[in-house]
User: Fold these one by one.
Assistant:
Number 1:
Amino acid sequence: MSRTLKMGVIGTGFIGPAHVEAARRTALAEVVAVADVNDEVAQKKAQELAIPKWYGDYRELLKNDEVEVVHICTPNFLHYKMSKEALLAGKHVVCEKPLAMNRREAEELVELAEKKNLVNAVHFNIRYYPLAREAHFMVKNGKVGKIFAIHGSYLQDWLFYDTDYNWRLEPELSGDSRAVADIGSHWLDLIEYISGDRVVEVFADFATFHKIRKKPLKPVETYAGKILRPEDYQDIPINTEDYASVLLHFKNGAHGVMTVNQVAAGRKNRLFFEIHGSECALSWDSERPNELWIGRRDKANEVLMKDPSLLSEETRGIVSFPGGHNEGFPDTSKQMFKEVYRFILDAENKRGTAPSFPTFRDGLREVILCEAILESARSGRWVKVE
């Protein structure tokens, strides 16, 4: 590969700059343009991130013939529209999750991307922690045995107080599901990837603990000490879940349960799973990402540290540093984007090799799962995933 890709980013909130940094660290892409809600915001971010071109209208970015791949890092309700227009403009697309607000939109994007023969990816980056990848290969290579049960959680506390507010709380911007769609989708994608199995039936219990939240009337940063006075906010009814527990049945007979909670004090961003197999158990915590616990019945348990010399050959490809040199969240996006960009740049892959990274089809899968979970929570019954 003798050249780098020209990349553009739409959306400059938290995750947009994370995409920019990760893309640059691949050494396979040059970030040439950024777009946001208006010229002022776009210019400010472009200057902060040393990006040469900026647009106050994302359509102008899509008209830029120099841009080959577009990263969509906007609120959820824009993902479908922007992905579709990017594909129609002939751009490869990396989209934040969820891919779309409903199954029909997601199916349309899958069909369009395949028709256009354009590379497409959804940012399920947690697959790219080295020990999550190693767990996948341990299961695939029979080291875990037949999987009996899987349980775990994704816990956060960023919405702990009723004064915590974000666009993700508004269904018209984020969708009818919040905690499950926002973080549960990551857990479900990771578990299906690691286990090689599919969820076929769900039973969900939702709870909204803060039924009224206080929405600031202007940016919180403008308040002295960030303290809200009664006249500084309005009460907003909340109709999406703070919490969910979901019972799971898997195609190959395993049972499981997932809990997601965005008001879990002290848990900043903790994805946890434990897989119980007939040969051993595996357990992993994203807040301690460089350790994989391996449970045994007849001998001492193990803690496998992230060290390329101890990992499978397949996993070593996403490890950048030697043992004892920890890798974390920013590295997952770098490793994923490396796979995406190499796929675009490698002409052989365009001749039919299946991509190794999560694609729009994986994004569609999570939309389908989330819709089944939402239906179950509303109906109070088991719902088949179809």
Number 2:
Amino acid sequence: MKIDQYEDRLIALANEIIGFLIHQKIQKPDAEDIVQDVFVKLMQTDLMLPPDKLRPWLYRVALSRFYDLYRRQKKYRDLLLSQYAQYCDIVPGYSENTDLEHALAALNDYQKSLILLYYDERQRIREIAMIYNVSEAKIKVDLFRTRQQLKQFIAEEKNA
């Protein structure tokens, strides 16, 4: 493969990855920044991958960059929330409903994070599935089971 053909292939893949990231609900400037980071990494590593291995490598690195960006933004939101709570004399929490707080405390970390991502942060099922690298069906089933478990815990609290 000639170098011009390789460059044309890279440009086509860059546009394809940007489209994929935008389809995954990433803002266009963030998607362009991620693709730029991917190509910087490609140039820094001095890789000359064959065309059949180039596309999967680029996608893998782009998704890794996206996850890093998501974690960084989540950490930034958490810091802002804690600082806002400190200055406004409020304590961030789930609610004043102690039954719900006790029920949430009884869940494991995975179940708590599902509930918080879906209801508190308003994440879509697809986005949660992408974070955990599982199918959307598994997230739906786990959310349903977690809600049932919460109902059971709250009912037990009220009966006790």
